[in-house]
Amino acid sequence: MYILNEKEYIREILVSGNKPDNISNGYLITLIAKYYFDRGKDPNILIDTIKAKMLEFNIEGYQEYRYANKIKKTCIDLYDSESKNLFRELEYVPIYEKELKVVESLPNDRQKKFMFTLFAIARYMNSEGWINKKDSKGLSEVFKLANVTLSSDKKNELLHELYSNGYIHFGKKVNNLNIKIDLGDTDDDIAYKVTQFENIGNQYIGNFKKGYKQCKQCGKKIKIVSKNDGSSLYCKKCKHDKQLEWSKKSYYKSIET
Predict the structure, then answer these.
(1) Three-state DSSP class for 198?
(2) How far apart are CA 118 and CA 121, in angstroms?
(3) 93-191: what CATH class?
């Protein structure tokens, strides 16, 4: 999961009192710890605060004892850290002109969407171009983010093609989980700003492939076949849903007056 502004994100979660389905318990613990961290207070206060907040969410299947070591270690690491910027607080993730040219040099949309997504993730991670995944599930999430649906064999084939042509590099271990890309110069012009970390592959198609755009509601890519398609912000399904929503609002407004 990629969150541009972690501080704002955890603040909204704490106010709502609801844990989003797409965030792990471990990541939630880390964000809560950072939010309530105060170097001037006893670490045990922070530990107790996290435990209390996690219980308030009433997370199905959550058992405090299973996360006791995680909570303790997270707190200790914060007190040991000298960093003042605990949260990632980004307005956007930039894709630079040179990086876009690399993407556009690729032979097909799948590779383009995937490479565009790799540039976005690498900029987000800020680890000198490294994108490290613990397992194949983590790598599958990258393909999903890129809107690329392939079998395991085809995924490996795509990675091998990019590797063979020098677009990506692998770590020393014999696997494809640690990927490195060559980032462009930050002095270059910004070609695109990623402000939402979802459907990044479709963001590329919708913004850079002629004859296509991206649905504002669901992120689906839309092929423009007429002037009406070009002026609409939504795909057919979302446009229909929006029209129903507008109709309901107009109806209830009319009976109120």
Answers:
(1) coil
(2) 5
(3) mainly alpha
Say if pTM beats, i.e. exceeds, 0.90. Answer: no
Run of H or E residues at 245: helix 236-256
Residue 124's SS3 state is helix
Domain range annotation of the chain: 6-80, 93-191
- Give the three-class secondary structure for 212: strand
d(CA 54, CA 17): 10
Between 120 and 257, the higher pLDDT residue = 120
pLDDT tens column, 134-172: 778 889 999 999 999 999 999 999 999 999 999 999 987
Confidence of residue 176 (pLDDT cuts 50, 70, 90): low
Q: Which of 155, 182, 216 is nearest to 96 (CA)?
A: 182
